[in-house]
Amino acid sequence: MPFDLILRGGRVVDPSQKLDAVTDVAFSGGKVAAVGAGLKADPSTEVRDVSQFIVTPGLIDLHTHVYWGGTSLGIDAEEFCRASGVTTSVDTGSAGPGNFAGFRKHVIEPSQVRILAYLHVSHAGIFGFSHRIMVGESEELRLMNPIEAAKVADANRDVIVGIKVRVGLHSSGTSGAVPLDIALQVADEVGMPLMAHIDHPPPTYEEVLARLRPGDVLTHAFRPFPNSPATAQGTVKKAVLDARERGVLFDIGHGKGSFAFKTARAMLANGFYPDTISSDIHQLCIDGPAFDQVTTMSKFLCMGMSLSDVIKASTENAAMALRRPELGSLKPGSVGDATLISVREGQFDYEDVVGEHLIGDRKIVSEGVVIGGRWWHPN
């Protein structure tokens, strides 16, 4: 079968294959067809010289809000992914069982960018999140809809990857961990992982972790005090280490209020790297401090994580969290998605959610993407 597209001569960094080499990547029939030097092109093959760029598996942003027009926090997935090199955008609870059908029909299905979703256990998802209105959907337990959530998740297994719940003072008020317990029942019922948001107590970071199962995701994992995973002495809390030992996954979910350099420095100094790096992009943080996925990745690169580890946290590890091993890899037979990036050197000002600035010497920039084996947008 002739190749549809060959990316020629880029530096291919694919942690799933422990690959970091200058080589070619070819696509055919919507999948990765071959990786190797000097791949042969047919007259019908599109060949792109990418020798100036780094080629990675298609980036996965595990925490986004892309129900554009359906919720006030939603951004346009295609526009965002063009700028950020993301080929799989995972919406985390924008929609619940009461409005998921609209999200699927009007946003997910027409999108050229792959959109997967964690379904919120609250009936209408995250409905009261804007500059002027901020109502935690988990505050009102009458909005918890476990029966319908299980039905909708079961009926949409092709695009729903798990169950989402938000707990903390801002999202669940004084309900504490009760919404989390309800969401866990749904996750158990449908055999899916859970993603839990955490903000200020109640509940505590430890209370949330104690409930999570192997494969469940705690997002906003490197948040500032209160409910930080690090102690005042700069060590990692024992509950955090115990949770990782039993298989709980730790996701960044930067967003508007959920990532602090102080916390990240402490965690990285102890060798506690995030399992997944994600932006938590939405209308209130797309103009800062999160901006996009590659900016979030850049912050970790500037704090000492290797480029390979940063890419792994946005490709292979994210695919494993989604239980979609066909994503996040350039192994032949994998989904034909790839991201082209460059790493620019200079002086770059990065900001966290509490106003601390970090002047970094490198910045990851999106240079183009391949979706479904086809070049999707030019420089």
TrEMBL record:
Coiled coil: none annotated. Pfam families: Amidohydro_1 (PF01979). Signal peptide: none annotated. It comes from the Bacteria. InterPro entries: Amidohydro-rel, Deacetylase_Atu3266-like, Metal-dep_hydrolase_composite, Metal_Hydrolase. Residues 54-210, 264-343 form the Amidohydrolase-related domain. This is Amidohydrolase/deacetylase family metallohydrolase. It comes from Bradyrhizobium campsiandrae.
